[in-house]
Structures are given as C-alpha cells and as structure tokens.
Amino acid sequence: MPFALIAAVTVVDISAPPDVHLGPFLVAAPAVTSSFAGPRMTAFVGLVAVLAQSVVAIARTSINDLNHTYQIIALCLISAFVTLFAHLRERHEREMTQLRSVAEAAQHVLMQPLPRRSGPLRIASVYLAAEAEAQLGGDLYALARTADGTRVIVGDARGKGLDAIGEAAGVLGAFRALAHREAWLPELVGHLEDGVTVDRNGTTDEEEDDYTAEAFVTAAVLDIPDAAPELRLVSCGHPPPLLIRAGEVLSLEVSEPAPPLGLAQLLAPAFTAETFTFGAGEVLLLYTDGVIEARDRSGCFYPLFERVASRSWDGAESLLEYVRADLLRHAGGRLGDDAAMVAIERLPDAV
Questions:
Q1: How many Å apart are CA 91 and CA 98, to the nearest integer?
Q2: Strands of 117-118's sheet, edge to edge?
Q3: From CA 127, how far away is CA 59, in angstroms rounded?
Q4: What whole-number distance in Å separates Cα of residue 168 and Cα of residue 142?
C-alpha cells in the first residue's frame, strides 16, 4: 500500500497543473508504514518517497526549486521521525512479549492441571487469560487428595502481573503442603491466611499498612468426602459456588463468611466451615469474579446464574464448555480480567 501510494502521488503530481503540488501527500507513505512495519522497512519507504519527490521536482521544474527543496527536506525529517517511532514501538512490543512470556511461564508452573478424576468426583477446569492487558491476573485453583476425600481451592489474588502471581503462589504452596495434614478445614484456612501475611514481617510500619490495605486473596476452600453425600465450605470473600441439582441451580451462600485471606490482622475472623448436601449426579461450579464481572458492549455483567439455570447439563465438562463459549460471546471475545472455573461432578456409586 505505501508503494502504491507513492506511485499514485508521483504520477498525478507530474501531470498536474503548475500551481498544484501533491508532494506533501508522500509523507503518508512512511507514516502509515511505521504503524505496522519495523524501522528498516519504514526507513526504506521514506527513502523511496524522497526519491519520488526528487523525480517530481526534476520533471516539473528543477531539483533546486525552492518549493521542492523544502518539500524534500520536510519529507526527510518526517521519515526520520517515524522511523524512530517504529523502532520504539517494535522495542516496546518485544518487551511486552517477553514480560507476558515470563508471567505465563510462572503461572503455568503454579497452575498445575487438575486431574480429571478424584475418587468419586469428575473434575473439569478452564482458565481464560485476559487479552486487554499484557499482564496476567492472580486467579488460582488447586486440588489435593486426602485419606477420605478431596480438598479444592479456587481463589483470586488482588491485582495483576507478577505481584498477584506471587500472592497466588503463597496460597497455593500452603494449600498443597497442608491440605493432606490438617484434619479440620478451618485450621487449613487459618494456615492459608498465614501464608498470605508471612511476607509482611520484614516490612516497616508504613510499608505494612500499604501492603495490608492492598494485598488480599479471595478464596473458596472445600472439603468433599468420598463416603458422605456432602461438602464443607469455607468462603473467604469469594463468589458463592453454584450447585446444579436435578435441573435446579442453587447458590451456596454461607451464613458466616470470612474476609479475604490477608485481612485477618484487620478483622480477626473466625473461620467456619458450613456443610451442604452434594449427592450423586450433582454438579458444583466454582469460579472467580472475572466470570461474573465480564461486561458486554452495553456494560452489562455476565449473568452466570441465569445462563446456568437456562438449560440442563450432562456433566461437568459440558457445563464448562458451554459457559466458556457463552462468556466469550458475551464479552465480545475479550475479557477485561482473567477468569477461572472448576466444575465438579459427583458420580454414582456404580461408576
């Protein structure tokens, strides 16, 4: 396109009347090139434009004509400027690509794939990274087998980028280390709280105040026994899970929610596990706020509860496949925040 533009302006300018000068339009060629090409191609297009302007000057009057001389000088300066712009843009894109690669590598190490089966449970999970920014968020999920059941955590660290991933790493590390050891779910959640706040011991009072006000992790921590048709839930400021039972969708709202992990020093919470029925054939959906806060073009949030309740489901995988596709359609293919979902189906005893 830039070369076609140069050729068209050159031909028309040579054949135009003496008082018509189209040479200034040649600056559009290197300017447009700098928006999508690198500095070398931009400089080459600028050189071709300068040569074309010189040909026009010779064909119409003389290259020493004052009007054409100023046009050539201006074209050289603008070409040099947009070449510098192309160089800076290319370097910025390269840096952003490297930063995202580092963040994705760190997140892949932390977010280990969940097993498809855990005792009598069938597991499905999905992680959708936001495309609006180069940084990744701190959404997290993990699963651990115990002697008599399965423990699951789904959470979201405040913020984006490596800081949020660092917060998520502390929670995931503590969960994986302690989920097998702690017999009581509230005690496990208490240790997760310690995993978020332990790094603040070496800060000054002012730094600690800023850190405490800004750093926290919302989380839903569950204990699902193999033998009993139930689940125990501790909710730390996290959106309530959805339970699909015989075509009905229930929101598992706890009566005594705890604050997000990392705020215990401010609120001194008592972590309480609440029990809900979770029988064979039922499906549990855990998610982060990136799902329910996804907006469409008109600014409306994604109605997760209504969409899940709008049809019947044949297991955890079909549920996640539908919600994933429907969420991306609602958001126009681009999410403003990372979104994570975990679906858990309790299989019949015969399976």
A1: 11
A2: 117-118, 121-128, 339-346, 283-287, 242-245, 248-251
A3: 63
A4: 11
